[in-house]
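CORE FACILITY INTAKE
Project code: CF-77B
Contact: R.S. (postdoc)
Sample description: multi-component assembly, three entities in total
Requested service: structural model of the whole complex
Turnaround: standard
Below are the sequence entries exactly as provided by the requester. Do not edit them.
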Amino acid sequence: MEEIFLFGMLRGAIFALAAFGFSLVLGVLGIVNFAHGVFVVIGALVTWSLHTQFGFNIALASLTAAFSMGVLGVVIQKAFIMRVFKLHPLMMLVQTWGVAIVATELANLIWSGSERLVRVNFPGPALITLGPVFIPTWDVIVFLVSVVAAGLLIALLQLTSLGRAIRACRDSLDSASLAGVNVDRVFMITMGICGIWSGFAGSLMVTLKPTATYMHFQWTLDAFIVVVIGGMGSVAGALLGGFLYGVLNFAAYFYSPNQAPAIIFAALILLLIVRPQGLFGLGQVGRK
Amino acid sequence: MIAIFDNSRFRMALLAIAAILAVSAPLYASAYLERVLIFVFFNIALATAWNVIGGVAGYPSFGHGAFFGLGAYTAAILIVRVGVGLPLAIIGGGLVAGAFALLFSPLLRQRGFYFALSTLAAQFAIETVIRTWSFTRGMKPSDQGWNLPEMGSLHYFYWLSLGLLSLCILSVFLLLRSRVGIALLAIHKDEVVAASVGIPCTRYKTIALTFSAVWPGIMGAAYAPFLVFISTDNVFGISITLNMILITIFGGIGTLAGPIVGGLVLSLIDRIVWANFLEYHALISGLIIIAVISFRPAGLVSWFKKS
Amino acid sequence: MTAILQLESVSRHFGGVEAVRNLSFSVSQGEILGLIGPNGSGKTTVFNLISGVVEPSSGQIYFNGQPFHGRRADQICAAGIARTFQTASLLPGMTARENVNIASLFRRDKLGKLAAKLTDHALELCGLTACAETTTEKLTTSEQKRVEVARAYATGAKLIMTDEVVAGLNAVETDEVIDILKTINREGITLIFVEHDVRAVMRVSHRLLVLSEGALLAEGDPAVVVGLPEVIKVYLGSRYAEAR
């Protein structure tokens, strides 16, 4: 029981990292990005390549991968998203779905569809104990790194003028642009941030579990679920939602691996019907 | 040249020729072509039905494939376990799909992508349950999916699918011209205004969802004996839903002709790609999606309309 | 005269802000009630309370003697209340006729084939016959406002509320709309006329209500009310000076 809670919390930090970008993009641009999971899986695969094939140390590989995903985010935003921004939200969903397919197919040309895993060597014991539970040390290290990354993002949003601009756009696009904020630039930067943090989540994940391109959609769904639980548009909510979902997800797969997806999805639907604003949410965000 | 399509006599003539060709095809077409056409008919019917809730009403359901799978499984269970004939199985498929649509109608309280994602989740949930429940014999190692008996020749299924497709298109045509169609259009354009002039939006949205679910249920029920073997792999899955959506958008979302044109053209492109660029099939599909949305979101039929 | 609408001690707050405080008034069947007040006085909230967009935090609203609680917008329309919208609310891509027709088609007393006739009548009443086949995007502001009125009329409502329906119209267009409203009123339809343009309000209202900071400031004969010192004060004199 404690195991489930602990492991769930550990994994939850990564869910939260992956969900931050999704939440920001939803709040600022008002769109659901079906290609979101692409940042995670390609970030993971780039990390694998840099570390395993090019010998980068793991920290450098992760950061490089994350930033490359940031660049990818900006490219996707400028080339594909802005083109259809004024259209019906359905068009945006389908467009990002198309982008997801193209991105993952191109990724398959490089990495094929197989799963990749990075084994990190580090000094110290392989297992540590937390109370009665044995936990792989690396999981704890990843957790701590995730929390730091989350903290960095929150600091960026709360303490910098860029963060203020992003939050202003999230609260009200009209007010923000009237106040002189360059909305196009904020959109671009938000997508970049989404790419970086989601890519970083992928880099962390690839050291824990085998990751492959086909998993991208599951990551998009997971991010969505976290954001629904925690409340749209709220980064703190995404953090808490991540932990909650981490535990729920782990528990569901632990007790009932076959039915787990159904249980999770049924819970999501119920949540959307009963409390659409999430646990800590600002209400439904987005156009229409 | 484009202008000639505005002439309604020309359109009627075109329709008549197409109808004659379609009905007589089994007499001179190869078995391969017949099979291809059957798949095309199914695709068009599914897209036409999806268009009602996704295109006309403006509630894009990303879980619609579930209704197709439910119809197929209902037919399989009815035919194999209970021993009913095909007509009853088809009706059963439609009824079960409709019942599930009513069950999920509370999801209509949400708009836009919330609706899309929750219907997506609903589809996965349904698929998982069917896959793992022994009563429905999903596809676990110990179970085998469903083997259906031979229920008709290729020609039989050709005319059956063509007949069902025609009924589907006719019913959608009548629906769109009725009060329901006008209500859905108003709801799509501005739900708040629609309600303020007395349109009971929930009722009409539910009608749209149920109607658009019954047809995939019917088609799924006809599909099961055609395929002879069904499992969650070939009648469930996100690709069925995505296909419906892509065909509709490609052809022209919100229009009656859109899914038809889209279905025909995309099937053609599909065949060409499959034959010549198989490894890049998915990549090309993705590129087509991006191209259509970026450059012609109103779909192919917008080329034939006056601007 | 019977009261068609009655508000009893209605309050509505949003978070910490009390938009409407302990408001009570009634509207008589067949009258034209003007409702004015400076920005932030609660006019919009009162409007939304009566048209069912929001619920009262406390107090009761009665329509035709029946309490009003928890009704959906389409039920309120069916009960006999219709409204116009302050910002563009005509359905895009549809003609003026089609816009009015959705009101005629979805009345509870199903008109069926007579719906088209009613639509024609509503269009004629609002001087829209010439532009009936013009689409929303190509209609002038004055025409759009009149389509809104025609649409509200076509629902068969016994009480029509207009929300700044003459905003943005010049003097001639304003008079046009006022004449239309008076004609509608002569058919026995009660009107609540919410407006900033005090001159227009004075021309058309039988009775005038002034709101300030969510509460009722003054009520009575328009000519008298606009002369009251507390009313002039609330408007800082400038608006009344314009109306004069």
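Facility notes:
- The first strand of chain C starts at residue 3 and ends at 14.
- The radius of gyration of chain C is 18 Å.
Invoice: internal transfer
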